[in-house]
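S., here's the first fold you wanted:
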Amino acid sequence: MWWPACSSGRSKRALPVDRRETGRGRGRRSGAGDEPVLLTGIHSVLEALRARRRKLLRLTVQPGSASEAVLEAARGAGVPVQEMPSGASASDPAEPRNQGLKLEVGPLPQTTLEELIAGASDRPGLIVALDGVEDPQNVGSIARVADAAGAQGLLLTERRAPPLGAAVSRASAGAIEWLPVARVPNLGRALNTLKEKGFWVFGCDPEEGEDLFSLPDRVVAGHRVVVLGAEGVGLRPGTQKRVDHRVRIPMGGRVASLNVASAASVVLFELQRRAHLARESASGSLHQEPAE
C-alpha cells in the first residue's frame, strides 16, 4: 500500500483543509498581489535575507533574540533593522513561535513552466507537481524535501494551492525562498507539455503501481515529474490520465500509509539515488578498458 495523498482517488473522502492561507475562492491567482508578508522564525527570516528574491522591507528584532547570522544577512541586504523597545515582547497570539524575529517582505516572485523546463536542460531534471495540495504546512514540507533532493522547482496550480506566504515559508524552513515555483491554470496541460519535452510523469497507485525500488534504469535516468495529490483524495482523474508510471512504496509495517510530505521524501530521494547510479553505470561502461 501507499499513502493516501497519492492514491488512485477512488472512494477516498477528503480530509479537512486549513483555509487560513489557501487561495481557493479569492477570485485571483493564489500568491499574487503586492500585499506585504510578515515572515517569522529564524529559518524563514534568514533564508529570505540570504536569497534576496523578495522585496525586503524591514526586520524587527527583540533585544538579544537575533543571531549574528541574521543581523549580518540583514546588513548585507541593506535591510533596516528595528529593535523593539526594552520590555516589549515580540510575542503575537497569532504567531507564538516567532522567535523574536519579524521580517516584512514583499510576495515571492514566481517563475514559468518554460523556465522550469529550461532549468533542467543540462542535466536529468526533477520537478515536483502538486495536485490539489492546499494545506500550507504540507506544501512547505514538500518544498523543503524538493529543495534538499535537488529538484529544479515546484509546480502548483493557480487554484487549489496556497499562496507562498509565511506559513509555507516557515514549514519549509526557508527552502521556499530558494526553490523556483511556477503556477499553471491547468495541471493536465502542463503535464502534457512536460511529456512533450521528454519528461516521464510519475504518479502513484497503491494497488497496481510498480514497486518504487524496482523501476528500470531507463525510466529513472531521464527527466522526471513527480505528482503528489492531497491527503485523503489522491490524484484527480484528469491527472491520472497523464501519468506514465504508477508506482508504490512497499510498506513493511502495520500502518499502511504515509503522509504526503513523508512519502515525497521517500520517492524523491529514491529517484535521485537511482538516477545517480544509472549515470555512474553509463559513465563506467563508456570508460571500461577493452578486454584482451
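And the second, which I think is the more interesting of the pair:
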Amino acid sequence: MMGDGVLRGHIRILITTLSLSIFVTAHAGNLPVSNVATSFSKSFDTTLQRKLASVLEQMGLSRAAINGKLAVALVDITNPDAPKVAAINGDEMMYAASLPKIAILYAAFVEINRGRLRLDKQTRESLTRMIRVSSNEDATLMLNRIGKQRVLEILQTGPFRFYDPATNGGLWVGKEYAKGTAYRRDPLHNISHGATVLQTARLYFLLESGRLLPPDLTAQMKEMLGHPAINHKFVKGLSKRPEAVVYRKSGTWRQWHADSALVEANGYKYVAVVLAEDPQGGQWLERLITPMHDLIVHPKYAAVTD
C-alpha cells in the first residue's frame, strides 16, 4: 500500500509538472497528466487539477490511475471562451465499449450537414436509440449507412481530428456493435472501440460552444444526448444532485466501464469523462461524478464525498 505521505508527494509532483508550459506524461509513479499538443491543453487549470487529484486520493483511486486503469477528465465550460481543463491520464487511450457510439453520432451529423444523409424520422429515431438506450443494432445500422471507412476518415481528418496520433489516439470505431471480428483496429493501440478522456471531452466542448456544427444541428445532436434512459454510472450518481441536467453516452463491456457527459446545473456547465478498467469500475464512476460535480457547481463542498 502507498503511504499517505508518499501519495501527497506524488500529488505535489503532479501539480509541479502541470506548472510547466509543456504537458508531459510523468513516469516517476505520480498521477500522469496529459501531453495533448492541442489548443485544448492550453486551458489546463492547476487549481482544478489539484482538486481533481485530491478527489481521486480521497476515494482511494489514485493507485488505479497510476497503474493506467483509470482516466478522468473534468472541464468547466461555464465560460466557453475560457474553459478550465483538468485531467488524469488525459491522453491514455482505453477500450471504451459503447461510448464511441458518440463518434458515430458525430459522423452522422457531419454527413447530414453535407447533404449526404437525410435526417428523416427513421434516421432520427435510430440515432436517438443508439445514444439513449445504447442500441447495438442501431449503432451497426448507422455505421454501415455512413460507411465504416467514412466514419474513420471523419474522425481522423478535418479541423477536429478526434483520433490523432499527436494526442495518442482518441475516439475510434473499428468494429460493428455485433458479433464478429474488428474490421480495423486503431493503429496505435490495436483497440476496436476506443477513446481518450480528453478527445471525448473536446467533442462535447466543441458541440456545446457551437464550433462543431451549425446551430440547428447542434441543438438536434444535443437533444439526442439528452434524457438518458440507462440509470447507472454518472446518471445514478447525479441523482443525488437533482439540479443536474445530463447529456451523456456511456459504455460497459466486461471489466471496462466508461461514461461521458455534458452537465448543466445552476448556471454552470461542465464536461466529465471517465474510463475505467476494473470489475468495480461502474461503481467507481457512480461515486466519482458527485464530487466532480461539486468541484464545479458546489465548490465550497467539494472536499466532501457522499
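Why I say that: The mean pLDDT is 88. The CA atoms of residues 249 and 260 lie 5 Å apart.

Talk tomorrow,
H.
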